[in-house]
Amino acid sequence: MSASFYLKDRSFKGSKDSCCYLVVRDGLYLRKENVAFRACVRLGRLSWENQDFGSRILEEEEFLEMKLPKIPARIVDEWVTLGRMVRKIYKSEVLLLLYYCPSTGEFQNKIPEQEVSPGSVSSKECIPAPEGHYLVGTVHSHPREAFHSNVDKDDEAGFDGVNITIGDLDDILPGFAVSAVVNGKRFPLPPEEVMETVEIPDEWLKKIHKV
Fold first, then answer.
1. Of 104, 108, 133, 196, which one is least surrounded by beta carbons within 10 A?
2. At 151, is the secondary structure helix, strand, or coil?
3. Angle subtended at Cα 143 by Cα 76 and Cα 188, rounded to the nearest 5 degrees
4. How far is 159 from 22, CA to CA, in rounded Å?
């Protein structure tokens, strides 16, 4: 992928490039945009021999703005149901791939051929994206707590998208851990901002009385 370089001074009006580099006061930044997010990550420092030149360049901050709508409860239910089935049958984790169609707002889950164990899941299959869809996320289950392990972080470092871990599948309600990764930079996200989640009002439980 080719990318342009821009000097972020007061004359910089922004860029419409899906991928570009910004030279700013404290270093070099990478901006990326796709159907899932807009983001900016810092790549490294720069030093200026001419301090007056450096002082005229503007600053930048890392950020991530999700562009996707909330993932529907129906899609989330498929993750949880499959995760519970695989845990029951194979005592293992499971991996799904999440696709999104910008023109229709539709999400689709796909499952690749994979090898699973109680503490890992591995897949090398490349699934063609459904027509009009883009791969925007990965989803995998954990036997207990939902978190991103060091192995998960290594696996996800080369993929720009949303990575979701499901855990607590033996409990009444599952747990979720969500991070977006852009150029290897992780941005933890609250699950309720990314997906539709189930919330049972406290007053419902208060109306139930054991006899």
1. 104
2. helix
3. 55
4. 21
98 and 174 belong to one structural domain: yes
The structure tokens listed for 191 are 């699950």
pLDDT tens, 112-153? 999 998 888 999 888 999 999 999 999 999 988 998 888 888
Name, in order, each residue with C-beta under 8 angstroms of 79's C-beta and a sequence gap of 6 or more.
Answer: 96, 109, 139, 141, 164, 166
Query: Any residues with CB less than 8 A from the CB of 130 and at least 6 apart, and which?
Result: 99, 101, 108, 110
pLDDT at 54: 59
Task: From 76, 79, 90, select the one nearest 120 (Cα to Cα).
Answer: 90
Q: What would the mean pLDDT of 51-77 be, rounded to a whole number?
A: 86
43 lies in the same domain as 103: no
Amino acid, single-letter form, for residue 187: F
